[in-house]
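Methods — Computational structure assignment.
A single polypeptide chain was analysed. Its primary sequence is given first, followed by the predicted tertiary structure written as structure tokens.
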Amino acid sequence: MPPSQEKGSSKSLQELVDEAGVYPAPAYQFVQDALGYTVEKLHGKLQNVDSSVSRHITGQDLCAGLREYALGQWGLLAYTVLRRWNITRTIDLGRIVFALIDIGQMQKTDTDTLDDFRDQFDMKRALETEYAIPVGS
């Protein structure tokens, strides 16, 4: 689901936010940033621009990466931040991803669906109860 090289919809991100009215612009930016984090974690740093090499990740991979990225950014406040942006379930992450796909800012394969994001984990538990403060290395 890396950013699309092709031109999708002519809508801007702000138009999408204004039209949908569900998630604020920072929520979309967070998902894009977390996508980059997850792709790099799973596939490594981009060494050269070889478009034949797939850097695709699944919805399940992205949910796990988003959780890790959020905890790295905000620690125990991660759920509070995401809830403020109306992200309370993993399906919300999928809705943001597919909205970004619709405007050409992400891409998908024929097998990617919104259901890939459904019930991946309990957001509150995964970001609060199961969080452990990292101890220095």
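Note: The radius of gyration is 15 Å.
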